[in-house]
Amino acid sequence: MDAREIRSPEVLPEVSPVSLEANAESHKRKRLGIYFLESDDRRTALGGGYTSGATPVNIHGKPISEFTISKTGGWIAAFFIFGNEMAERMAYFGLSVNMVAFMFYVMHQPFENSANAVNNFLGISQASSVLGGFLADAYLGRYWTIAIFTTIYLGTNVIRLPFFWAIVSRQKPWQMLYLYTVLYITGFGAAGIRPCVSSFGADQFDERSSGYKEHLDRFFNFFYLSVTVGAIVAFTAVVYIQMKHGWGSAFGSLAIAMGMSNLVFFLGTPLYRHRLPGGSLLTRVAQVLVAAFRKRNASFENSEFVGLYELPGQRSAIKGSSKIPHTEDFRCLDKAALRLKEDGVNPSPWRLCTVTQVEEIKILLKLVPIPACTIMLNLILTEYLTLSVQQAYTLNTHMGHLKLPVTCMPVFPGLSIFLLLSLYYSVFVPLSRRITGHPHGASQLQRVGIGLAVSILSVAWAGMFERYRRHYAIEHGYEASFLTPMPDLSAYWLLIQYCLIGIAEVFCIVGLLEFLYEEAPDAMRSIGSAYAAVAGGLGCFAATILNNIIKSVTGDVEKRKPSWLSQNVNTGRFDYFYWLLTVMSVINFSAFLFAAQRYQYRQSR
C-alpha cells in the first residue's frame, strides 16, 4: 500500500488519548486537522488526483507551458471580456428599461403588471444563474458555457424583431404569450453568461505572480465599469433611437449590440486561459452529506478513528482544484472524511470523502450570509427602476432647453458609478489607506459594508424628498394629475438618491464579486459568482412580493382607499414605503455586521 499515515490519536506520542481526555473539559472542540491519512488506495472516478487548481490550460484542456503562457491571458485577454460584457449589458439593460414602457403604452398593460413582468424577467435571469455556474464548474468550463448561452441570447434577440415591428400596426391575442415566452428565454440566456464572465476574466491572471492581488482588484473595478458603460448607452442611446425611429429600431439595436458582444468574445479565443471543470459538484456535495450521515454516530475519539482522509502530496482528488486545509467549522461534516478501520482498504466515495471535498461544502455554506445581506440592496435597486420613474413623471425634467425623457432617469446612477470608478484609485484608495492601513484602501467585506451603509442614506433621502414632493403636489392642485409635470419642481432632486445608490452599488457589488471569486473553492468559482447573481434575482422577486403585500395591506378598494403604492403617486404614500425600506435596510446592515465580524478570510488561516 502506497500510503502515508498520521496515525490515530491513541498512538500519537505528542497527542495521546490521555492528554486528549484530560483536556476535554477545557478544550472540547479539539482540532482534527493533525489527524490525517493520505493514501492512494481508493479508486474514484477522478483517478489518482490532480495538480493545483491554479494551473492554466488551453481550450483543449492541456496545460499551458511556461514558454507560451506569456502570450495568453493578462490584460489583453481581459479587454476582450470587457468589450463582450459592455455590449451584452447594453442589450440587457436596454431591454429592461424599454420593456416597461412598451408593455404599458403599446400592449396596454397596467403599469403594475408591466413592472412586475420586467421584475420577474430580471429575477429569473439572475436567480437561475446558478444553473450556468453549475454547468461551467462541473462540465463545460466557463468559456464554453458563455459561448453556448451567449448564442442563445443572440438568437432570442433576433427572433423578437419581427414581433416588435409588427405589433405596432396590429395586435393579436397570442402576442402577450409570445412576448412573455421570448422574454423569459432571453432571461435564461443571460443566466448562463452572468456567473461566468467575471470569473472567466479573473482566470486570465496568474495566481502565482507577485502582482496578482492588485491585478484582481483592478480587474473587478474595470469589469464593473464596462457593465456601467453598457447601461449608460442603454439608458440614453437606445431610448433616443426608440423616440426617433420607433420600437422596432430600438429593439433592433439591442440585437446588434448582442451580435457585437458575441463577435468580441469569440475574437479573443486564442488569447484566453482556461480552468478545468471539476466534475459534478452536486455529486460531490451528495457524497459528503451521505458519508457524514452514515457516520453520524461515530466518535472522533474512539479506537476505530484512523484519521481524516486526503490524497498525498500536492495532488487533489478534484479536477481543477488545489487542496484545501482542514478547518474547525461544521464539524459534523468532518465525519464524511473520518476514516474508520471498518472502511477497509478500498472504501466507496459515498462512504469516505477527502478533506478537500468536505472543505468545499463548508466554504459554500460559510459564504451564504454575505451575499444574502445584499438582497436588500438589490430590492432597493429594483424598486428605484419603477418608483423613481413614476415620481419623475410628476416633475420637470428640463435641463435648460433640453428635455430629458423620463425613461432616461436611471442613467444617473450609472454616471455616478462611472465617475466613482474613474476616481477610485486616485482618490478613494489613498484616502482610505491612511485610515484603514489596508493596501487596497478597504477589504472586500469593508467595501460591501460601505455600500450597504450608503444605500440606507439613499432610501432615507428618497423618503424625505417624496414627502416634500407629495405635499407640494397636493398644495398646488396636482393631486389628480399624476402624469402632469409640475414646472416649478425639478426632477433633478432625484439625482441625490440616484447618485447615492450608484455609489452603494459600486462598493457593494464590486466588493462582493471580488470576495466571492477569491473565497470560493477553485472548482466552484462560477457557483461562487452565481451567489451574487442569485442575490440580485431574489432582490427582484422580493420587490414584487413586498409590493403585493403593501398594496393588499394598505389599500382598500371597497372603501376607495388608495394603497401606499397607488398608480397615482400623489394619492399614494411612497414616502412611507421608502421609510419602510430604510428600516429594513438598517436591520439588514446590522445582520451584515454580525456576519462579517464572524467571517474569516481563507487567506488568513
Which regions contain 5 or more consecutive residues with pLDDT less than 50?
Answer: 1-30, 37-52
State the shape: globular
Gap between N and C termini, in Å? 32 Å
Average predicted confidence as pLDDT: 80
User: Helix and strand succession?
Assistant: EHEHHHHHHHEHEHHHEEEHHEHHH
Strand content: under 5%
| Helix content estimate | 55-70%
Radius of gyration: 27 Å
Largest sheet strand order: 1-2-3-4
Distinct helical segment count: 17
Per DSSP E runs of 2 or more residues, the count of β-strands stands at: 8
Assign the structural class, choosing from mainly alpha, mainly beta, alpha/beta, alpha+beta, or little secondary structure: mainly alpha
The main β sheet shows up as: 4 strands, mixed
Features:
transmembrane transporter activity; transmembrane; membrane; single chain; mainly alpha; two-stranded parallel ribbon; transmembrane helix; four-stranded mixed beta sheet; 61% helix; disordered N terminus
